[in-house]
Write a structure and sequence with these properties.
The protein has helices at residues 37-59, 63-81, 88-95, 104-125, 132-142, 178-192, 201-215, 222-236, 248-253, 255-268, 271-308, 314-326, 341-353, 372-378; strands at 7-14, 17-24, 329-331, 358-359, 368-370. By secondary structure, the chain is mainly alpha-helical. Helix 2 packs across helix 4 (104-125).
Protein backbone atom coordinates (compact mmCIF):
# COMPACT_ATOMS: atom_id res chain seq x y z
CA UNK A 1 0.00 0.00 0.00
CA UNK A 2 1.28 3.44 -0.91
CA UNK A 3 0.68 6.03 1.78
CA UNK A 4 1.79 9.61 2.12
CA UNK A 5 5.23 10.50 3.47
CA UNK A 6 5.78 8.86 6.89
CA UNK A 7 6.81 11.98 8.74
CA UNK A 8 7.47 15.64 8.20
CA UNK A 9 10.34 17.82 7.07
CA UNK A 10 11.85 20.64 9.06
CA UNK A 11 14.30 23.13 7.60
CA UNK A 12 17.56 23.37 9.56
CA UNK A 13 20.92 25.04 9.22
CA UNK A 14 23.94 22.77 9.77
CA UNK A 15 27.59 22.89 8.71
CA UNK A 16 26.90 26.19 6.97
CA UNK A 17 24.10 24.77 4.81
CA UNK A 18 20.32 24.94 4.88
CA UNK A 19 18.77 21.48 4.46
CA UNK A 20 15.55 19.64 5.21
CA UNK A 21 15.70 17.07 8.03
CA UNK A 22 13.11 14.32 8.31
CA UNK A 23 11.14 13.62 11.52
CA UNK A 24 9.28 10.28 11.32
CA UNK A 25 5.70 9.80 12.46
CA UNK A 26 5.50 7.53 15.55
CA UNK A 27 4.69 3.86 15.03
CA UNK A 28 2.48 2.00 14.22
CA UNK A 29 1.85 2.99 10.58
CA UNK A 30 -1.38 4.71 9.69
CA UNK A 31 -3.44 3.46 7.96
CA UNK A 32 -2.67 -0.01 9.36
CA UNK A 33 -0.68 -2.62 7.45
CA UNK A 34 -2.58 -4.08 4.48
CA UNK A 35 -2.23 -7.82 5.09
CA UNK A 36 -2.68 -9.27 1.64
CA UNK A 37 -2.87 -13.11 1.48
CA UNK A 38 0.64 -13.17 -0.01
CA UNK A 39 2.14 -11.02 2.76
CA UNK A 40 0.34 -12.98 5.48
CA UNK A 41 1.63 -16.23 4.00
CA UNK A 42 5.20 -14.89 3.94
CA UNK A 43 5.01 -13.88 7.60
CA UNK A 44 3.53 -17.28 8.51
CA UNK A 45 6.46 -18.98 6.74
CA UNK A 46 8.90 -16.73 8.59
CA UNK A 47 7.35 -17.64 11.96
CA UNK A 48 7.46 -21.33 11.05
CA UNK A 49 11.15 -21.02 10.13
CA UNK A 50 11.84 -19.28 13.46
CA UNK A 51 10.07 -22.09 15.31
CA UNK A 52 12.20 -24.70 13.54
CA UNK A 53 15.34 -22.75 14.34
CA UNK A 54 14.40 -22.50 18.01
CA UNK A 55 13.79 -26.27 18.05
CA UNK A 56 17.25 -26.86 16.60
CA UNK A 57 18.85 -24.84 19.39
CA UNK A 58 16.99 -26.96 21.96
CA UNK A 59 18.07 -30.24 20.33
CA UNK A 60 21.76 -29.33 20.13
CA UNK A 61 23.78 -31.23 22.75
CA UNK A 62 25.37 -28.00 23.99
CA UNK A 63 24.01 -24.86 22.24
CA UNK A 64 26.50 -22.56 24.01
CA UNK A 65 29.39 -24.16 22.13
CA UNK A 66 27.81 -23.25 18.79
CA UNK A 67 26.53 -19.85 19.92
CA UNK A 68 30.04 -18.67 20.76
CA UNK A 69 30.99 -18.77 17.08
CA UNK A 70 27.52 -17.79 15.80
CA UNK A 71 27.67 -14.52 17.69
CA UNK A 72 31.13 -13.81 16.25
CA UNK A 73 29.96 -14.57 12.73
CA UNK A 74 27.18 -12.02 13.08
CA UNK A 75 29.62 -9.45 14.47
CA UNK A 76 31.84 -9.93 11.42
CA UNK A 77 28.97 -9.66 8.93
CA UNK A 78 27.32 -6.65 10.55
CA UNK A 79 30.63 -4.81 10.69
CA UNK A 80 31.45 -5.72 7.08
CA UNK A 81 28.33 -3.85 5.98
CA UNK A 82 29.89 -0.77 7.57
CA UNK A 83 33.13 -1.30 5.63
CA UNK A 84 35.42 -3.35 7.90
CA UNK A 85 37.63 -6.03 6.35
CA UNK A 86 37.79 -8.46 9.27
CA UNK A 87 37.01 -12.14 8.74
CA UNK A 88 35.84 -14.63 11.36
CA UNK A 89 39.36 -16.11 11.54
CA UNK A 90 40.84 -12.62 12.07
CA UNK A 91 38.52 -12.09 15.04
CA UNK A 92 39.36 -15.47 16.57
CA UNK A 93 43.09 -14.76 16.20
CA UNK A 94 42.62 -11.34 17.80
CA UNK A 95 40.89 -12.96 20.77
CA UNK A 96 43.99 -15.14 21.17
CA UNK A 97 46.12 -11.96 21.40
CA UNK A 98 47.56 -12.78 17.97
CA UNK A 99 47.99 -10.43 15.03
CA UNK A 100 45.21 -10.71 12.40
CA UNK A 101 45.79 -10.20 8.68
CA UNK A 102 43.77 -6.96 8.51
CA UNK A 103 44.03 -3.56 10.25
CA UNK A 104 43.71 -4.03 14.00
CA UNK A 105 41.02 -1.32 14.27
CA UNK A 106 38.76 -3.39 11.99
CA UNK A 107 39.03 -6.43 14.25
CA UNK A 108 38.68 -4.37 17.43
CA UNK A 109 35.44 -2.95 16.03
CA UNK A 110 34.09 -6.48 15.52
CA UNK A 111 35.24 -7.52 18.99
CA UNK A 112 33.33 -4.57 20.47
CA UNK A 113 30.21 -5.80 18.68
CA UNK A 114 30.52 -9.21 20.35
CA UNK A 115 30.88 -7.56 23.77
CA UNK A 116 27.90 -5.25 23.11
CA UNK A 117 25.65 -8.13 22.03
CA UNK A 118 26.64 -10.27 25.00
CA UNK A 119 25.97 -7.36 27.37
CA UNK A 120 22.50 -6.83 25.93
CA UNK A 121 21.61 -10.52 26.14
CA UNK A 122 22.86 -10.77 29.72
CA UNK A 123 20.82 -7.73 30.80
CA UNK A 124 17.71 -9.24 29.23
CA UNK A 125 18.32 -12.53 31.06
CA UNK A 126 18.50 -10.53 34.31
CA UNK A 127 15.03 -9.15 33.61
CA UNK A 128 16.09 -5.69 32.41
CA UNK A 129 13.66 -4.34 29.77
CA UNK A 130 14.63 -3.54 26.21
CA UNK A 131 14.68 0.21 26.75
CA UNK A 132 16.48 3.42 25.80
CA UNK A 133 18.76 2.94 28.77
CA UNK A 134 19.79 -0.53 27.58
CA UNK A 135 20.22 0.71 24.00
CA UNK A 136 22.60 3.43 25.26
CA UNK A 137 24.50 0.88 27.37
CA UNK A 138 24.96 -1.38 24.35
CA UNK A 139 26.06 1.56 22.21
CA UNK A 140 28.65 2.61 24.79
CA UNK A 141 30.27 -0.83 24.57
CA UNK A 142 29.96 -0.94 20.78
CA UNK A 143 32.03 2.24 20.45
CA UNK A 144 34.19 1.79 23.55
CA UNK A 145 37.49 1.56 21.64
CA UNK A 146 38.80 2.15 18.14
CA UNK A 147 36.84 3.94 15.44
CA UNK A 148 33.91 5.90 16.81
CA UNK A 149 35.22 6.02 20.38
CA UNK A 150 35.39 9.81 20.06
CA UNK A 151 31.76 10.05 18.92
CA UNK A 152 30.00 10.19 22.31
CA UNK A 153 29.49 6.45 22.96
CA UNK A 154 26.33 5.76 24.93
CA UNK A 155 24.82 9.19 24.30
CA UNK A 156 22.18 10.29 21.85
CA UNK A 157 23.65 12.75 19.41
CA UNK A 158 23.73 16.46 20.12
CA UNK A 159 24.68 17.45 16.57
CA UNK A 160 23.25 16.81 13.13
CA UNK A 161 24.25 13.76 11.09
CA UNK A 162 23.37 12.65 7.59
CA UNK A 163 23.40 9.49 5.47
CA UNK A 164 25.24 9.30 2.16
CA UNK A 165 27.06 12.15 0.47
CA UNK A 166 29.99 14.17 1.70
CA UNK A 167 27.97 16.96 3.34
CA UNK A 168 24.34 17.63 4.36
CA UNK A 169 23.60 19.37 1.05
CA UNK A 170 24.25 16.28 -1.07
CA UNK A 171 23.13 13.66 1.48
CA UNK A 172 20.77 10.86 0.52
CA UNK A 173 18.88 11.35 3.78
CA UNK A 174 19.03 13.77 6.73
CA UNK A 175 17.63 12.31 10.00
CA UNK A 176 15.82 14.35 12.68
CA UNK A 177 17.58 17.35 14.25
CA UNK A 178 19.31 16.53 17.58
CA UNK A 179 16.67 18.37 19.62
CA UNK A 180 14.03 15.91 18.29
CA UNK A 181 15.98 12.69 18.85
CA UNK A 182 14.94 12.04 22.47
CA UNK A 183 11.26 12.52 21.64
CA UNK A 184 11.47 10.24 18.60
CA UNK A 185 13.31 7.56 20.57
CA UNK A 186 10.82 7.90 23.43
CA UNK A 187 8.00 7.16 20.98
CA UNK A 188 9.95 4.15 19.70
CA UNK A 189 10.43 2.86 23.25
CA UNK A 190 6.67 3.13 23.84
CA UNK A 191 6.06 1.09 20.69
CA UNK A 192 8.53 -1.58 21.84
CA UNK A 193 6.46 -1.86 25.02
CA UNK A 194 3.18 -2.29 23.08
CA UNK A 195 1.95 1.25 23.40
CA UNK A 196 -0.28 2.60 21.95
CA UNK A 197 -1.22 -0.85 20.58
CA UNK A 198 -0.03 -4.40 21.14
CA UNK A 199 2.03 -5.63 18.19
CA UNK A 200 3.20 -9.16 17.42
CA UNK A 201 6.93 -9.62 17.95
CA UNK A 202 8.09 -10.27 14.39
CA UNK A 203 6.08 -7.35 13.03
CA UNK A 204 7.36 -5.17 15.87
CA UNK A 205 10.97 -6.07 15.04
CA UNK A 206 10.45 -5.24 11.36
CA UNK A 207 8.83 -1.86 12.03
CA UNK A 208 11.18 -0.87 14.86
CA UNK A 209 14.28 -1.56 12.75
CA UNK A 210 13.18 0.92 10.08
CA UNK A 211 12.21 3.52 12.67
CA UNK A 212 15.55 3.23 14.47
CA UNK A 213 17.51 3.62 11.23
CA UNK A 214 15.36 6.61 10.27
CA UNK A 215 15.96 8.36 13.60
CA UNK A 216 19.69 7.50 13.46
CA UNK A 217 20.01 8.54 17.12
CA UNK A 218 23.79 8.21 17.49
CA UNK A 219 26.71 9.83 15.71
CA UNK A 220 28.10 6.41 14.78
CA UNK A 221 27.16 2.72 15.07
CA UNK A 222 23.48 3.12 14.08
CA UNK A 223 23.54 0.41 11.41
CA UNK A 224 25.10 -2.21 13.65
CA UNK A 225 22.88 -1.37 16.61
CA UNK A 226 19.76 -1.30 14.45
CA UNK A 227 20.47 -4.83 13.22
CA UNK A 228 21.28 -5.94 16.75
CA UNK A 229 17.92 -4.60 17.91
CA UNK A 230 16.12 -7.26 15.83
CA UNK A 231 17.83 -10.16 17.60
CA UNK A 232 17.51 -8.59 21.04
CA UNK A 233 13.77 -8.07 20.57
CA UNK A 234 13.20 -11.66 19.43
CA UNK A 235 15.07 -12.92 22.50
CA UNK A 236 13.44 -10.42 24.89
CA UNK A 237 9.96 -11.56 23.85
CA UNK A 238 10.92 -15.28 23.94
CA UNK A 239 10.37 -15.91 20.23
CA UNK A 240 13.90 -17.33 20.29
CA UNK A 241 15.41 -19.09 23.28
CA UNK A 242 18.95 -18.44 22.05
CA UNK A 243 20.29 -15.65 19.78
CA UNK A 244 20.55 -17.77 16.64
CA UNK A 245 18.96 -15.42 14.07
CA UNK A 246 21.08 -12.74 12.43
CA UNK A 247 19.95 -10.92 9.29
CA UNK A 248 23.23 -9.20 8.45
CA UNK A 249 24.23 -11.77 5.80
CA UNK A 250 20.91 -11.32 3.97
CA UNK A 251 21.17 -7.53 4.22
CA UNK A 252 24.77 -7.72 3.00
CA UNK A 253 23.79 -9.83 -0.03
CA UNK A 254 20.85 -7.51 -0.88
CA UNK A 255 22.35 -4.26 0.31
CA UNK A 256 20.99 -1.89 -2.35
CA UNK A 257 17.50 -3.34 -2.17
CA UNK A 258 17.61 -2.98 1.62
CA UNK A 259 18.55 0.72 1.42
CA UNK A 260 15.97 1.40 -1.30
CA UNK A 261 13.17 -0.15 0.75
CA UNK A 262 14.06 1.91 3.83
CA UNK A 263 13.74 5.06 1.72
CA UNK A 264 10.51 3.83 0.13
CA UNK A 265 8.98 3.48 3.60
CA UNK A 266 10.03 7.00 4.59
CA UNK A 267 8.90 8.80 1.48
CA UNK A 268 5.96 6.78 0.14
CA UNK A 269 4.86 4.75 3.17
CA UNK A 270 5.32 1.41 1.43
CA UNK A 271 5.61 -0.62 4.62
CA UNK A 272 4.21 -3.71 2.90
CA UNK A 273 7.15 -3.95 0.46
CA UNK A 274 9.56 -3.70 3.40
CA UNK A 275 7.66 -6.35 5.38
CA UNK A 276 7.71 -8.67 2.36
CA UNK A 277 11.52 -8.28 2.20
CA UNK A 278 11.90 -8.66 5.96
CA UNK A 279 9.84 -11.87 6.05
CA UNK A 280 11.93 -13.24 3.19
CA UNK A 281 15.10 -12.34 5.12
CA UNK A 282 13.88 -14.09 8.28
CA UNK A 283 12.74 -17.23 6.43
CA UNK A 284 15.95 -17.63 4.43
CA UNK A 285 18.24 -16.76 7.34
CA UNK A 286 16.47 -18.98 9.87
CA UNK A 287 16.50 -21.88 7.42
CA UNK A 288 20.21 -21.41 6.72
CA UNK A 289 20.99 -21.11 10.43
CA UNK A 290 19.12 -24.33 11.19
CA UNK A 291 20.95 -26.11 8.38
CA UNK A 292 24.29 -24.79 9.61
CA UNK A 293 23.58 -25.96 13.15
CA UNK A 294 22.64 -29.36 11.76
CA UNK A 295 25.83 -29.56 9.71
CA UNK A 296 27.93 -28.62 12.74
CA UNK A 297 26.15 -31.25 14.81
CA UNK A 298 26.79 -33.92 12.15
CA UNK A 299 30.45 -32.89 11.89
CA UNK A 300 30.82 -33.13 15.65
CA UNK A 301 29.29 -36.63 15.72
CA UNK A 302 31.46 -37.83 12.82
CA UNK A 303 34.59 -36.57 14.52
CA UNK A 304 33.57 -38.12 17.83
CA UNK A 305 33.24 -41.50 16.11
CA UNK A 306 36.85 -41.21 14.95
CA UNK A 307 37.97 -40.11 18.40
CA UNK A 308 36.18 -43.07 19.97
CA UNK A 309 38.49 -45.42 18.11
CA UNK A 310 41.63 -44.00 19.74
CA UNK A 311 41.48 -46.26 22.75
CA UNK A 312 42.57 -45.20 26.22
CA UNK A 313 43.27 -41.56 25.36
CA UNK A 314 39.89 -41.04 23.67
CA UNK A 315 38.29 -39.56 26.82
CA UNK A 316 40.90 -36.82 27.01
CA UNK A 317 40.68 -36.14 23.27
CA UNK A 318 36.89 -35.78 23.62
CA UNK A 319 37.47 -32.99 26.14
CA UNK A 320 39.81 -31.12 23.81
CA UNK A 321 37.40 -31.62 20.91
CA UNK A 322 34.56 -30.12 22.95
CA UNK A 323 36.72 -27.09 23.75
CA UNK A 324 37.46 -26.62 20.03
CA UNK A 325 33.73 -26.54 19.28
CA UNK A 326 33.71 -23.29 21.25
CA UNK A 327 37.06 -21.91 20.12
CA UNK A 328 37.76 -23.33 16.64
CA UNK A 329 41.13 -21.53 16.51
CA UNK A 330 43.17 -22.04 19.65
CA UNK A 331 46.52 -22.46 21.29
CA UNK A 332 47.02 -25.37 23.66
CA UNK A 333 47.21 -22.98 26.60
CA UNK A 334 43.82 -21.45 25.74
CA UNK A 335 41.97 -24.77 25.73
CA UNK A 336 40.02 -24.99 28.97
CA UNK A 337 39.84 -28.54 30.32
CA UNK A 338 40.79 -30.39 33.47
CA UNK A 339 43.77 -31.90 31.61
CA UNK A 340 47.44 -31.10 32.04
CA UNK A 341 49.20 -29.02 29.39
CA UNK A 342 51.17 -32.06 28.24
CA UNK A 343 47.97 -34.09 27.79
CA UNK A 344 46.28 -31.27 25.87
CA UNK A 345 49.22 -31.09 23.48
CA UNK A 346 49.15 -34.86 23.02
CA UNK A 347 45.41 -34.73 22.30
CA UNK A 348 45.91 -31.97 19.72
CA UNK A 349 48.51 -34.11 17.95
CA UNK A 350 46.00 -36.98 17.89
CA UNK A 351 43.34 -34.70 16.38
CA UNK A 352 45.86 -33.48 13.82
CA UNK A 353 46.70 -37.05 12.82
CA UNK A 354 42.98 -37.76 12.39
CA UNK A 355 42.67 -34.72 10.10
CA UNK A 356 40.22 -33.03 12.44
CA UNK A 357 42.46 -30.06 13.27
CA UNK A 358 45.21 -28.35 11.31
CA UNK A 359 48.28 -26.67 12.78
CA UNK A 360 48.70 -23.18 11.30
CA UNK A 361 52.19 -21.96 12.23
CA UNK A 362 54.60 -24.76 11.40
CA UNK A 363 56.47 -23.86 14.59
CA UNK A 364 57.68 -26.18 17.34
CA UNK A 365 56.39 -23.85 20.07
CA UNK A 366 53.34 -21.63 20.51
CA UNK A 367 51.50 -23.68 17.92
CA UNK A 368 48.02 -22.65 16.79
CA UNK A 369 45.39 -25.19 15.81
CA UNK A 370 42.36 -24.70 13.59
CA UNK A 371 39.22 -26.85 13.56
CA UNK A 372 39.22 -26.51 9.78
CA UNK A 373 35.96 -28.16 8.71
CA UNK A 374 34.05 -26.41 11.48
CA UNK A 375 35.39 -23.04 10.36
CA UNK A 376 34.66 -23.84 6.73
CA UNK A 377 30.98 -24.29 7.60
CA UNK A 378 30.84 -21.15 9.77
CA UNK A 379 32.77 -18.98 7.32
CA UNK A 380 30.17 -19.23 4.54
CA UNK A 381 29.08 -15.72 3.65
CA UNK A 382 31.78 -13.92 5.66
CA UNK A 383 34.29 -13.73 2.83
CA UNK A 384 35.43 -10.12 2.46
Amino acid sequence: MKRTIQGRYITISTVGETVRAFIPTPLPPQPPIDWSPQLREKFDRALLALGRLDSVSILLPNPSLFLYTYVRKEAVLSSQIEGTQSSLSDLLLFELDLTPSVPIQDVREVSNYVAALNHGLQRLKEGFPLSLRLIREIHEILLSTGRGSDRTPGEFRRSQNWIGGTRPGDAVFVPPPPENVVECMGDLEMFLHDRPVQTTTLLKAALAHVQFETIHPFLDGNGRLGRLLITLLLCAEKVLKDPMLYLSLFFKMHRQRYYDLLNDVRFSGDWEAWLDFFAEAVTETATQSAETAGQLGELSLEDQKQIGQLGQISGSVFQVHQALLERPIARAGWIKTSLSAATVNKCLRCLEELGIVRELTGQRRNRIYSYAKYLEIMNRGTEV
